[in-house]
Each structure stands twice: as structure tokens, then as C-alpha cells.
Amino acid sequence: MKTKSTLGKRIWLIFILGTISASGPLSIDLYLPALPEMTHDLAAPASLIQMSLSACLLGLALGQLISGPLSDKYGRKKPLMVGFFVFGLVSLLIAMSNSVYLLILLRFIQGLAGASGQVLSRAIASDMFSGSLLTKFYSMLSAVNGIFPVISPVIGGFMIQFVSWKGIFILLAAIGFILVIALWLGVKETLPVENRITGHPLESVVEMFGFLKNSKFVRLILATGLVSGGLFSYISASSFVFQNFFHMSVQNFSLLYALNGIGIAIGSMIPGGLAARFPEITQARFVLATTVLTTILLTLSALFFNNLLVVIVLVFLTVTQFGMLFTLTTSIIMNLSLRNNGGLSALLGLSQNAIGGIMSPLVGVMGSHTYLPMALAIMGCMLLSMLLFFSIHDKSRNQDSFE
């Protein structure tokens, strides 16, 4: 079903897919400004509150292993609608919870449900586009998705001035139910019956894990997941670093976080503009190398001087590079297969969210009274990602060499 599509339909599709793929940013970024308040309200340490972030990320990772393969058998639309209905319902339950342990459990379930938006937005795009067209589409899709990290913390920071953190999850519930209606009315099925996997549903799961037999593919997936680990090291520590260490107000932190969200969106659009001139693999290698350099500078700044402006500039450069890498690695991976794209997207999401979920509490355990743990975590993730990616020796200058 590879198609060029009309401009109007493509814009509408980008808007819808960009919105449903934002289940992760909505679940995470909207409540970030409330983390210090939740620490006090639930009488829990920062590392335990950050565990609610990790639980959601792990749910997002495992949920993709469910919705991705199921979509290869039953189509994309039905799993999306079921997922966002459960997402809305669980968000209401979170708003009624008073236990940090119940919060962590429900956040895990919320992640399981919201995972369908992340995995199937990628699968739908790969159903319709391939090659450089897919890279350009992912660039635009990521730009729309990048709007939510920009506006979410601003909205969250504004809301907690008037309501408790529970009000944020009531808003998430409303968003989930609205998306169910939007999917029902505004998205057509992109996977024809004749292209679906036949037989028992477990067969689609078996085919999905068949990708893991390819060592080059595994290294590529891990390299991509480590980029996400670097991003979530920043996300989980940012509110404590800027509010507690640099003494920023909630409102100023929300604006700074929004600025970095703009950086991610800008970075996401750059590879699409360069796709016709430079292969995605070449772009990815260059950006990985420069990102490692930026994170080394961030770490050195934490060791030798603590200047807020320097940290703001280096973090902005780092997250902008993250945006470029997410577009590039997603395009490289999703161009690998013309079949079982739901499962392929699920493995990509598993790596991103699982490694992100591991890094989030790790940064909290390392300490929240300096930004050195955040800088070290980001640098470590990016260095490992670069080493893994550069260990893949392609014989040609395109994605097919990874098959």
C-alpha cells in the first residue's frame, strides 16, 4: 500500500498520527512539573516518584509487543481504539489514587494501553511510504509529535497552580476518550486483509521475534534505544536539576522544558530536508559523533563549573540532536521490512521505552543535588549508542545493508 497520497490527505494523516503517537509525551511531560509536589503529597522519596515514570515507560515498551503483532493480524485501527479507551479509563483511576505504589502500578497499565499510539503510528506510516519518502514523512510526524513536549509541561505547570497533580490525570483521561472518537471517525484502515498475517495470533509474535536473529538488527535496535535512554535521563532529572539545584520556579522550568521540546521538533525535521542528498546512515553517524561531543562538554561543565546558561545551551543542543537521531533511526529500521511492520515497530518501541525506563530511576538514585549524574547518564548512553552503530559495517550506502 505504498503511496504518495495527496498533500491534503498527507497533512491530515500527519496531524492524526502525530497526535496518537504523543501518548508517551502526554503521559510523561504533562505531569513533570508536578513531580516535586507529588513527592511531598505522597510522602515518597524522589527515586520512588521517578519510578512512576519508569513504570509508564516499561508499560509503553511491553504494550507495543502486544499491539504491534496484533495489528499485523487484525489491522491497525481496532487495537488503537481499544488502547486509548483503556488509557482514558486508567487515567481516571490514577486521579483517585492516594498510594505511591498504586500509582506506580496504574502508571504501568496506562503505559501498556497508550503504547498502541506509538507503535501503530509508525506502522501506519510504513504501510503507506518507503525510502526517502518515509524519512520525510517521519520528519513531519515527529515535528507534530514534538508539539506535545512543548505545550505539555507548560499546561502542567499552569494547572498545578490551581489544582492538585490529580487534575492532570483527569485531563489525560479526557484526552484518551477524545482520541477514541477521533480514531473512529478520522482514520482509515491501512493494512488490507490480504497483507495481514494469517493463522494463530502467536504466529505474528513469532515472526516479530524472528528479527532478533539478525545481530546487526539487534545492534541497531539497541543503539536506538540508548538514544531514548539519554533523552529520559534528561527528562527524569530535569525538574529536580533546574528547580532544586538551579532554583528555577515551576513556571520558568516549564518554559525551559518547552524550549527544549522545540529543539527536539526542529531536530526531527532536519533529516527530512537532507534525505535527498545524504543517506540516512551517513547522517546518523555524523549526528551520533557530534552528540557524544556535546555530552562530554556537558559533563565537563558539571565537574569544573556550574553555570546555568552553559547548561541550558548544551542541553538544548543535545535534545536537538536527539530529535535528528529519532527520525533517522526510525526511518532506517522501518525501511528494513515490507511485512510485519507492526512487530518491527514494536521491537523499536520496546528498546526505546525499556532502556528509557531503566535510566530514569538510575539517575534519581545517583542523586538530585547536582546535574553530574544526569550528564554522566546521557554521555554514557550516547557513547554506547555510537559504538554499537559504528560496529555495523554496511557494504552499501543505504538501509538495505542492515538486512
TrEMBL record:
GO terms for molecular function: xenobiotic transmembrane transporter activity. Residues 13-397 form the Major facilitator superfamily (MFS) profile domain. The chain crosses the membrane at residues 12-32, 44-67, 79-96, 137-162, 168-187, 217-235, 255-274, 286-305, 311-334, 371-392. The keyword Transmembrane helix applies. GO terms for biological process: xenobiotic detoxification by transmembrane export across the plasma membrane. Keywords: Cell membrane, Membrane, Transmembrane, Transmembrane helix, Transport. InterPro entries: Efflux_drug-R_Bcr/CmlA, MFS, MFS_dom, MFS_trans_sf, Sugar_transporter_CS. It comes from the Bacteria. It is found in: Cell membrane. GO terms for cellular component: plasma membrane. SUPFAM superfamilies: MFS general substrate transporter (SSF103473). It is a multi-pass membrane protein. Belongs to the major facilitator superfamily. Bcr/CmlA family. This is Bcr/CflA family efflux transporter. It comes from Lentilactobacillus rapi.
